[in-house]
Amino acid sequence: MSTRKRSDLVSLCFYGAVLLLFFYNASAFTDPSDAKAMEDFYGLLNHTTQLTGWTATGGDPCGRNWRGVSCSGSSIASIDISGLGLGGTMSSQLSSLLSLTQLDMSYNNISGEISSDLPPNATLINLAANKFVGNIPMSLPYLKHLKHLNVSSNNLSGILGSVFTDMTSLEKLDLSFNSFSGDLPSSFGSLQNLHSLHLQHNHFTGSVSYLANLPLTDLNIENNNFSGYVPKHFEVIPELRMEGNQFQPYFLNRTRIFFPPLPSADKNVSHTPIVTHEVLHQHPHKKSNVAVALMAAAFSTIFVSFAISLAVYLLIRRARNEEEIVTIIMSSPSIMSPPAGSIHNSMTSMHSPFLQEINTRRCHNIRGRISFSNRARKLSLSRQYFASDLSVATNDYSRGALIGAGPIGSVFKAMFPDGQVLALKRIEVVNMELLEVEQEEFLDLVSTMSDLKHPNLCVLQGYCIDPGHHALLYDFARNGSLHSALFSKDGDSQKPLSWKVRLRIALGVAHALEYMHEICSPPFAHGNIKARNVLLDEEFVPHVTDFGLTMLSSILPTTNVDFKMFEGSKGYTAPEMSRPGSDKIKGDIFSFGVLLLELLTGLKAFDSSGTGEEEQYLVQYASPHLHDLGSLQRIVDPTISETIPSHSLSCLADIIVLCIQPLPQFRIPMSEVAEKLVKLVQKVGRQHNCQGVSSQSEPPMVDIDYGHSFRTTLSHFDPSSSPSTARATSVGLVSNVCEVK
Fold this sequence. Notes:
Phosphorylase Kinase, domain 1; nine-stranded mixed beta sheet; seven-stranded parallel beta sheet
């Protein structure tokens, strides 16, 4: 009996061991799809002597020791084969590795294009220092968990598309030491967690404004062709390297941006002496006195600040009860004036509340609908009108005061008792009484529009926020819109715009768009560029209007507005704008190209009276004529055709072609457009002066200078090295390079 028990025990142990061995092996076996993907991966590599354990058939990466491969259970979790001297190409089966989070193939000799079938759940991909060619795969946005991407030191090239859209997990990106070109795509602005970005030693062009609001702590953009203004935010980036570009002055010294101090407005005003540690050490017996003085000054400052805050609070409380806000003019330099020699941004200094006297004026009570912060904020905004004033100024919005109607409301000529004349845009809102959040949205628009200051933007002079009377007020344009100047059929209208005036208008609009696209931070797209939104003052200087109105989408009658916007912008809209997520800045550039076509041909962007469908859209009609000078001359506006030199005509055609490219990545930035137009305008001005022709109604065209803050963002333009030359070659322009000497 004991022998039988012993035998049963031995059998039980044997079967238990077999069972344990089976489960052990089962857990070690690699998932079949992972094993197949790894076999394909191995089969495309060469010089694989360093890949010990790897095999092309029957492999078991998780069951056996494959060099550089780590598993989680039966799934491949990471691959690290860096620095093994491998060659070959990249596998297209990596997308089957669903559990792979880290892929490091750096420092090898792997060639070909980067596979578009990347591990979908990867958090780290390092392909640096190989021989990859082509561009970054467009499938990259599908890697929603990717945190680190390094493709530096390869042979990658081309223009980056919107490959970084919605990649909110990306923290580190290295594209350095390649041959990428073109402007940075707008999708860079969505990388809200990116803190390290290396773009050095490429051929990138245009502005870096899309990087302005990223939480970067490490930025290297050295040795590219970036241009324009350096965003103020770059000052706080700890590791910043940006030499070897074409930025405007005021920028950097190694890792810091330095803005030169502005001179004092009054040279006789002495600056407050600065007490330094060196001075204290030179006069040790004065240490205690200085310390006491500093403490006294500090306590005095705190006391004064508290007193001012209390006074403002009491005044605002009284304003609530009396249904009016009384603003205070504080004349003390120590309170209202900035320190002498303080540094101001060129855009904000023109509109700083500390530099403007605040006028006392009555405001309509909007208690219960605007927060305390907005009441305080309004002190620095444009003037607030109330409904009764606007009704009087427009004669109860009579037809005689009506200037025109747009997609979001009608425009009236408002004549105030003090003689001021403004253009009033009355906005049609969904509800007469807006909700608080909608009211906030309207005030945000007013605040934004008040901050935009440029000679070619319509200045916002005031606003009204009374129920049913939401309105914006601008400077009145004496010569109406560009649309009416070009296409008016009235017998008593002004004479046709001359060639020189049209060029000046084009240049002014280009400068306005350049300011919004490349100087504002973050970049600002207009979204509805057309001839009706370009107003002309008494000297035919253009002023772009209706910028920022897309911010009001939630308070407008959506269906009606969308239809009117579509109808009013027919012919101006870029082909890709019907797709969500399209780059609106590139859309503005296309619309500007259409505007140039209107100035050149005297034809509307869309004309329903055309005899053929192909002639209704100006771009479709004119594009075939832009590549041949003889054909081009046949579509020029007959009223100016005799005054345009053939070289100037071909130059403008070149600019138009670069703006209306069907693919947005091939459209040049507005800084380059403005630079080309500046040269063309100067050339025409010199020819005009040499001919001895002068007109009292047209100011001279030479020595155009909008001031340093509003010039083109390119510091110079070299046709031989500009990326525009490559674009010009690819699209077959009239002249190979439009160089104005």
